């Protein structure tokens, strides 16, 4: 009977000390405070430009690996296919990430236009004339960026689709006949890659214009194969 009473008392103590959901009893120490995660810094025009140039480089690396694969000898077909698959996955990762950067760039362009839209409200005739011209330039850059991004997307999506088809078609069937049969698809992907890069170059040029007008410095960057 005494043992039973001790057990009941022990259980009551455990419950009161917090194991049953309440707080208090033996320890009143507070849980450590978790610091708030730092807010992400706004993306800069320089960063967007750099990532676009890296994507352009990856487009070229992927296209080159596809061309090499299409001309493979039987001995080189397997390693060339593996290299192509690796470059394709890298490009896919950059494509997914750049969807966010496209939104960032549109927001930057919209903010750029809004600045000069407000500046045009000044009363001084000379300042107003300058502001109206800047507003017109800003509107042109804003519309051009949106158009070029849409054109780049229109070219990029079928390009990626063709790259994927090349990989799926050849996977496990790296025969000379199979490699020969993708010649038309390879030629089409090459043309699409050139078109994608034309639009990337146009967007980069527009970023430089916007950076120059806003004072947000963008260093001249050259994408090199294998750059991070």
Describe this entry's structure for a reader.
The structure is a single chain. By secondary structure, the chain is mainly α. It starts with a helix and ends in a 14-residue tail after the last helix. The radius of gyration is 30 Å and the shape is elongated. It contains six helices and no strands. The chain has helices spanning 2-19, 45-70, 77-119, 125-170, 176-181, 183-214. It has one domain.
What would the keywords be for this entry?
228 residues, disordered N terminus, mainly alpha, disordered C terminus, elongated
The number of distinct helices, counting runs of at least 4 residues, comes to: 6
Radius of gyration: 30 Å
Shape: elongated
Low-confidence stretches: 1-27, 219-228
Structural class: mainly alpha
